[in-house]
Amino acid sequence: MNSVTEISKNLTTPEAMPIVQTWNLGKVYRTGFWLNQQLRSLNDCSLSVYQGETFGLLGPNGAGKTTLLKILLGIVRPTQGRAVLLGQPIGRQEVKQKVGYLPENAYFYDYLTAWEFLEFAAGLFQLSTTIQKQRIPQLLDLVGLDQKTARKKQLRQYSKGMLQRVGMAQALINDPDLVFFDEPMSGLDPLGRYQVREIILSLKSQGKTIFFNSHVLTDVEQICDRIAILARGNLLCVGSLEDILGRSDVYQVIVKGGTQEALEPWILGIKNIENSWHGQLEGDPQEFMAALSQMDAQLLSLNRARASLEEYFIEQLRERGITSSQ
Ligand SMILES: Nc1ncnc2c1ncn2[C@@H]1O[C@H](COP(=O)(O)OP(=O)(O)OP(=O)(O)O)[C@@H](O)[C@H]1O
Fold first, then answer.
1. For labeling, which of 75, 166, 291, 312 is most exposed (least CB within 10 Å)?
2. In terms of domains, do 65 and 154 share one?
3. Residues 30 and 177 both lie in one domain
4. Within 13 Å of residue 56, how many CA atoms lie on the same side as its CB?
5. Which residue owns the Cα nearest ligand 1 atom 8?
């Protein structure tokens, strides 16, 4: 058994329902020419994702993120453990009807237009033409693609960012309750990443549960309710960002001048180090700065106390002696 730090039991809502649950999931691939070698890519993975959550699965290359996603989607069979999606065992047809998926390197039919591609995807779910006529324009709006372009332009003429948005529309064609995105921001420029983030946030506001893999930790930090870190097939920690990193509105301050008595109500754990006051800010930064001007003191620095997700991520890997990806 690997040791998983379950950092938080705080759910999006206290009575939230588990939508994804796994118990000791594991996968050993058979490799080599004679398939006589074994590669353990997932180990004893137990986690839960709750209704309406945006859940980010992080990990270095080769950590086993895609393997876990593919097991949940019924594409890869686990060699150990079990999992339940939307209250039913994975792989069931009824479950697949309610799940959306955008693979990491999605294949698009170059000579179809976006509209034709979405019609094709809708056909796989046997959606009626009436529903298709309503849903395709809605999805194009959601992902920010122009309807005329979607009807005319073949996918081979689309940029990477536009293709990714078509891929997201495809993943939503069946109006799923649960959506899996494998590296949705990969290879996108800052604007493309912003657009994908906005789409994910808009899906969240519709109450959908989103499970995605990512290397882009700044994006994860902005949109996820909870995260898990996977490395070399082992789950290292699961928890909410606030419980993992601390509150985002806590600041460390350094002040020059003023007196300890005047500053004490504002600075928790105040200490004098080399003629300046150090500690944690109590209260609103704007009000604090206004108060400083009254006490003849000068603010030298005001920094968020919480570490970035990237710092935490690197630290977690380092603690376990993982210094390179696979
Ligand atoms: N079909 C397969 N057959 C054999 N080995 C595989 C197969 N798929 C994945 N692996 C191996 O399993 C391990 C985990 O791979 P996986 O793709 O799940 O990692 P990942 O975390 O998604 O990586 P990345 O971030 O690079 O996409 C890797 O060592 C990979 O080479």
1. 75
2. yes
3. yes
4. 25
5. 67
